[in-house]
Amino acid sequence: MTESIAERLSVADARKADAIGKTVLLKGWVRTRRDSKVGFSFIELNDGSSFGNIQVLASKSLNNYDSVVKNLNTGCSIRVVGLVKESPGAGQATEVEATEIELYGAAPSSYPLQKKRHSLEFLRTIAHLRSRTNTFGAVERIRNRVSFSIHQYFQERGFFYVHTPLITASDCEGAGQMFRVSTIDPSNPPRNEQGEIDYSQDFFGKPTYLTVSGQLEGETFACGLGKIYTFGPTFRAENSNTTRHLAEFWMIEPEAAFYELEDNMELAEGLLKRIFSDVLEFCPEEMAFFNKQFDTTLTETLQHIIQSDFVRLTYTEAVDILKTSGNSFEYKVEWGIDLQSEHERYLTEEHFKKPVILYNYPRSIKPFYMRVNEDGKTVRAMDVLVPKIGEIIGGSERETDLETLQIRMDEQGLEKANYSWYEDLRRYGTVPHSGFGLGFERVIQFVTGIANIRDVIPFPRTPGSCEF
Ligand code: 4AD
Ligand code: MG
C-alpha cells in the first residue's frame, strides 16, 4: 500500500539532506542490527550504491517487530518503507524511520561476512561475496569511476574507442607468453608427417592465442581514424607469482597517428593526473577509507602528483643514477639489462620520490615494433614508473621504416608471414605514430593503496588459480 506513495531511492540518495521529509522505499542488505533497551532497533542498511550505510530505525510498534525485525542478521536482504529524517548522529545527514520492513532472504549465522575485520586473503576465498564488504564495494566503485574517467579523457581529446580482437595469431610483445586457443582434442591430436601436432586442422587453420595486447590491430585503426584507444581484457601466460601480475588483466591502449614520443609522454602524464584528480573529486568516501585503512599517505601523494611534473629521464641516465646510488641491488646494474622492479622502485620511490618516465631503452630488450633511434642502439620506448608499483605504463613511438622493421622481426625470431598486414602500414602512407598501454589493475592498486593486485580485480586469474 505505502509502496505506491513511497519514492524508490538508493541508499546513496536517501543519505543526502535533500531526501529529508520524503517517504521512501529502500532495498538492500543488513550490515548490522543493534537493539536499544527502549523498544527500538537500529539497522545499518547498505545497497552498494555508496560507501556509507543508512541507519534505519525500527520501532517495536511494527507489526512484525518480534517475528522479523528482531531476527535480522548481518547479510539479510530487506525492503524498507519509511520517512527520511534529519539524523541527530554525527557523520550522517539522514536516517529513516521505518513504517514497514519486509524480509527478502534470511542469512543464517553461518554467513561468512560477519561484523568484524576479515583479512584480504580470507576474502579472496569468497570472491563471490566480497563485493558486499566495505573494501570491495569501494574497489568496484573506484574501478567504475576510473573506467568512466578514462573514456572521458580520450573522448574529450577526439580519440575513438575501437574494439580489437581477443583471439589472435600474432604475438605483439614477442615474449611467447600466450595462452593457446584450440579445439583440437588433446588426447588425440592430428599430426603431420614429422609427428608434430597439425594446427592446420585446428579451428582457425593455424595456431591461435588469446591476445597479450591490442596494439598491433590498434595501430591499423590509428592509421585510418587518426587517434584511437582500446580498453579490454588482456592475457599473459607469464608464470610470475607477484603482487603486480595477473594472467588476465585489463589494459587501456591509445594509439595516435602523427604522435611522436614527446606527445605520447604528454598524453600518458595527462591521463594519470586526470584519473587521480577524478577519484579524489568523485569518490571522496572511498578515498577517505583507503587513506585510513590502507595507506595514510595516499591522498597526499595523489595531490602532490597532480600538481607536479613527472621526471623524464633516459635509460642511460637512469643506469648512471643506479650505478652511483651506493645501493646494493639484488640484480647488478649494467647498461643493457632489463631494469628489475627493485631498480624501478628505487628511482621513483627513493631517488625522485615522484613518477618517472624512462625513455630510450636498449633495442635488445624491447619489442620489434619500437622505433630505432639514430644511434642504432636504443629505441623510442617509454615506461612510466610510480612509487610502490614500478611500471604502470609501457609504450613507444613505433617503427615506421619497413626495412628496419623487418630486421627487427628477424632479430627477435618472429614469423614474418604472420605480420604482412602489419608491414602494410609501412608500405602504404607510413606515418610517425605512438601509443602506450596502461595496466588498469595497476592504476587501481595505485589509487587505493592495496598492495596485492589480486584484491583489485573481481575474480583474479593467476598461475594455479582460476576460481569462480
Ligand atoms: O609494457 P606492456 O607489456 O606493453 C604492451 O603490451 C604494449 N603493447 C602497450 C602499447 O604500447 N600499446 O604492458 C603495458 C602495461 C604495463 O605497463 C603494466 O601496467 C600492465 O600493462 N601489465 C600487467 N598488468 C597486470 N598483470 C600483468 N601480467 C601485466 N603485464 C603488463
Ligand atoms: Mg612493459
How far apart lie the N and C ends? Answer: 41 Å
What radius of gyration results from the CA coordinates? 27 Å
Average pLDDT figure: 95
N-to-C order of helices and strands: EHEEEEEHHEEEEHEEHHHEHHEEEHHEH
Helix count?
A: 12
- Describe the main β-sheet briefly: 8 strands, mixed
- Strand fraction: 15-25%
pLDDT below 50 for ≥5 consecutive residues: which ranges?
A: none
**Global outline:** elongated
Strand order of the largest sheet: 7-11-12-17-16-15-14-13
- Give the helix level as a range of percent: 25-40%
Oligomer type? single chain
Distinct small molecules bound, one entry per kind: 4-amino-1,4-dioxobutan-2-aminium adenosine-5'-monophosphate, magnesium ion
How many individual β-strands?
17
Which secondary-structure class do the elements indicate? alpha+beta
Supply database-style keywords.
binds 4-amino-1,4-dioxobutan-2-aminium adenosine-5'-monophosphate, 24% strand, alpha+beta, 5-stranded mixed beta barrel
Write up this protein.
With 468 residues, the chain is an alpha+beta fold. The protein has 12 helices and 17 strands. It has helices at residues 11-14, 120-125, 134-156, 215-225, 261-282, 284-293, 298-307, 315-323, 341-351, 402-411, 420-427, 440-448, and strands at residues 7-8, 23-35, 40-46, 54-59, 77-86, 94-105, 160-161, 167-168, 180-181, 208-210, 227-235, 248-257, 311-314, 356-362, 378-386, 390-397, 433-439. β5 (77-86) and β6 form a beta hairpin. α3 (134-156) crosses α6 (284-293) and α5 (261-282) crosses α7. The longest helix has 23 residues, at 134-156. The model has no long low-confidence stretch (mean pLDDT 95). The site of magnesium ion has 3 residues, from β16. 4-amino-1,4-dioxobutan-2-aminium adenosine-5'-monophosphate binds next to β12, β16, β17 and α12.
